[in-house]
Amino acid sequence: ISFVPAVEVKIEVVIPEKERSKEEMSPNGKASPLIYKVNGTARHYHLEEHPIASNPYHNPKDVVEASVCHVKDLENGQMREVDLGCGKALLIKEGGEFHAVGHKCPHYGAPLVKGVLSKGRVRCPWHGACFNISTGDIEDFPGLDSLPRFQVKIEKEKVYIRASKQALQTQRRTKMMAKCISLSNYNLSSTNVLIIGAGAAGLVCAETLRQEGFSDRIVMCTMDRHLPYDRPKLSKSMDSHPEQIALRPKEFFRTYDIEVLTEMQVAAMDIKNKTAVFKDGFKMEYNKLLIATGNTPKALSCKGKEVENVFNIRTPEDANRVVKLATSKNVVIVGASFLGMEVAAYLTERAHSVSVVELEEVPFKKFFGERVGRAVMKMFESNRVKFYMQTEVSELREQEGKLKEVVLKSGKVLRADVCVVGVGAVPATGFLKQSGINIDSKGFIVVNKMMQTNIPGVFAAGDAVTFPLALRNNKKVNVPHWQMAHMHGRIAALNMLAHGMEISTVPYLWTAMFGKSIRYAGHGEGFDDVVIQGDLDELKFVAFYTKSDEVVAVASMNYDPIVSKVAEVLAAGRTIRKRDVE
């Protein structure tokens, strides 16, 4: 396989500084308040949608039409960003036909022209979201919204695009959604669909049900104080306030009748009577259930673990508090995990000192391999982060109840005013112990490709499940990543509605440190070799993870859109051999 870009060959490999900082920081888009009503009489519910170009334009002042290029300017398989005067569109030519959609990924605003075009869809170069070029619909995640679609016409060899100005400005479109028909007749303690957990899996499940015309009651419950938010930001931009990282504004939940019960913990499940029993004694009956409780961070088990100012980062409040306490102080991070390393990177400019304690000899060794791990470690060391490797914490010492020192098993004593623990997590499934739902020896809920558990009508999704991964011959795996949780939620919703949809997505994740990103696609567990192209010292490389003769995963830094390209090849069911990348 040659990795020749399907887009224009002069793809820039390095993200310009300006764009790079935008990528990590831009808040998720809010649903635009402008709503277009369709009377859905056929199914007795109202569909609501932001106006998109394929609808008749109600307000001619909102429409712009412009000639954007000559028909011969674009070859098949090419994309071009075009300016319509009051906003840009992405013009695509595939199979002899032109298509025009929004030019920015609705997730964090990546320029899709730098992404990968393949078989009727474009994949984002940053985080792997996929959009259908004919409809603009989102087909793989992360992110919640689709792209606006614009009308294209050809006249006298010229290509014209006709678009709504508002869509050009927002660059996003929320799919049509049903509303609940008769909320007033409901018994408070029963719902048609109950979703336990309000992360990406839970929210996408609820939204997908509404998009598919489901018009009965949906209740989501969460232990969190907040409506669903962008959890990856907790360690990547720790100053974020809950409203800045909300995935949807409050009004959205009201508009589409998605009820969210915050600070509500399920204590037990009565599967026979289809009832969830909450910690406070409240009971709720359901018809269909989604369990998307995610995981619980592991705590330290050493002496002094109850000292003040030791944190697992679970909520925006935790993250904000750590930043406040760490400013000009000494920080110790236990665990060179994704969370630990992202927090370390974020705090270096604010703290007096940052130290990382880790059992392995290099960070990310099991995930990225030793060579990439070392390159990342060097980048941290050049940013004043100190590493204490191949050791662990034996004691946390306090002064007046507050953390003062972290003692290592090696005997070393580190000054510490705040400690962040990132030593992994366990699935939050303790409440299912006697439920009859099939759980494996590690506590993960076992589901099939339709996200169904062994109990009819009970589905599970996200970080707490193991599921068969098509990419690795249907091996049961746990993939605790943001994109996968979105897809799980979608598949679960479609199968609650009996669509018979199986999951086949390629895992895609990213980590951000010091304004740089490592992107990763595939499932590298058990890799036996790493083929590296590019320059590790310059942090401009691509690493292919192989098992026997096959590429099972890829990681890159400053090498876009290679990871999205490999993800597309793998998504098409094609095998990449080791010799193809050597």
TrEMBL record:
Residues 66-161 form the Rieske domain. PROSITE patterns: RIESKE. One of its GO terms (cellular component) is mitochondrion. GO terms for molecular function: 2 iron, 2 sulfur cluster binding; metal ion binding; oxidoreductase activity, acting on NAD(P)H. Pfam families: Pyr_redox_2 (PF07992), Reductase_C (PF14759), Rieske (PF00355). Keywords: 2Fe-2S, Apoptosis, Electron transport, FAD, Flavoprotein, Iron, Iron-sulfur, Metal-binding, Mitochondrion, Oxidoreductase, Transport. Gene3D superfamilies: 3.30.390.30, FAD/NAD(P)-binding domain (3.50.50.60), Rieske [2Fe-2S] iron-sulphur domain (2.102.10.10). It is found in: Mitochondrion. InterPro entries: FAD-oxidoreductase/Apoptosis, FAD/NAD-bd_sf, FAD/NAD-binding_dom, FAD/NAD-linked_Rdtase_dimer_sf, Reductase_C, Rieske_2Fe-2S, Rieske_2Fe-2S_sf. One of its GO terms (biological process) is execution phase of apoptosis. Induces apoptosis through a caspase dependent pathway. Reduces mitochondrial membrane potential. Belongs to the FAD-dependent oxidoreductase family. This is Apoptosis-inducing factor 3.
